[in-house]
Amino acid sequence: MKISGHKTRSILQRYNITKEENLKQAAQRLDTRLKEFVTIKWNEEEKHFFTRLK
After folding, report:
1. Is residue 35 part of a domain?
2. pTM of the predicted model as reported, rounded to 2 decimal places
3. How far is CA 41 from CA 32, 47, 51, in A?
4. Kind and range of the H or E run holding 27
5. What total number of domains does the chain contain?
């Protein structure tokens, strides 16, 4: 609920997305939007991701 912004469990359940295709589309839209604000890169030497705000 923290990610979606729903205040109560009942509201979350009312608008719950259950179709796999809808979930994939939502993830793709979120990924596209995040790329506008954040750079994510893999650090091979230290074996972890790092992020930077644009």
Report:
1. yes
2. 0.48
3. 15, 11, 7
4. helix 20-35
5. 1
